[in-house]
Amino acid sequence: MEKPNAIGWFDIYVDDMNRAVEFYEAVFQQELETIVDPTSDTQMKSFPSNMKTYGASGALVKSAHARPGAGGTMVYFTVEDCAVVEARVTAAEGQIIRPKFSIGEFGYVTVCMDTEGNMFGLSSMA
What we know:
Layout: E1 9-13, H1 17-28, E2 33-35, E3 43-46, E4 57-62, E5 76-78, H2 82-91, E6 95-102, E7 108-113, E8 119-124
Parallel strand pairs: 1-4, 5-8
Antiparallel strand pairs: 2-3, 3-4, 6-7, 7-8
Helix pairs in contact: 1-2
């Protein structure tokens, strides 16, 4: 059996689910989907996903068990061009922490902050 990738799922913790959903839907121009939590303990909205393709999917999560904030795990979203998506981050009231920069043969990265105070990255080959 082949070993799976190290990351199979991610959670981005939020304080205000509506504000966070509005931000991520504006930036990535995709509708997030409600995930029903069988424990009724958390609110979750997932990013569109196809579990049979390369990469991991995940969700925005509002939970009493964890909080958003900078300095934790960084999630990098694959996009066509970091510079194009940077403009949508600021338009959606997020912040660009480090504008698009080269990481050599691996393409480009932008470091951002969402409306909840979470740091995240954008990654592109162009």
